[in-house]
Design goal:
Two copies of one chain form a homodimer.
Chain A (H helix, E strand, L loop, with lengths): L6 E7 L5 E7 L1 H10 L3 E4 L4 E4 L8 E8 L5 E8 L15 E3 L3
Parallel strand pairs in A: 1-6
Antiparallel strand pairs in A: 1-2, 3-4, 5-6
Chain lengths: 101, 101
């Protein structure tokens, strides 16, 4: 089970609709995102907050945030500067397409 | 922390790119999805597999599946019959837009 205090945050390009990445938010990360307009998340591996682009410059300008029907997932529409993925790919889903049989 | 055996599955409309819902998959649900071409998930609340649309008829015809850079999130492109959300809304993100300040 997911930590009940964490919501999954789906990040979508506000321009062309491509899904860029998935990250995690607690209430504080959501508050910071809503008040600063910068995608801000909770790192489960590091146990700390991170602002997307803080070191890479690949900032997310948040245009809209919606909560899903059961309140545990967020959908962010963003203007993404540069690559969304830490690998340098535009999205985190560009590298590994699985075969449908 | 999420159950390490579960991957988050983001479901996107293959036609217009709208994000429809988020669900969960283990390896078996992914295998069933890839081999049947129908969105099949693991229900964390019920502890069982479910095929989207099995009771509602709102089936997902899966067109593509991609794994993200760190291997814990899937992105599905689907042709969605009817509403994706159990509330009857087209997506699970239609009802609750949060205010940006």
């Amino acid at each position: 089970m997911a930590d009940p205090e964490l919501k999954a945050a789906i990040v979508q390009d506000a321009g062309d609709g491509r899904v860029l990445m998935l990250a995690w938010m607690d209430d504080e990360a959501l508050h910071r995102t809503l008040t600063t307009g910068r995608g801000t998340y909770w790192s489960r591996s590091r146990g700390s907050y991170w602002v997307k682009g803080e070191t890479s410059g690949h900032v997310q300008h948040v245009k809209a945030v919606a909560l899903d029907c059961d309140g545990d997932t967020l959908l962010l529409q963003v203007d993404q500067e540069g690559a969304a993925c830490h690998t340098g790919d535009r999205t985190c889903f560009d590298a590994d397409v699985l075969p449908l049989s």
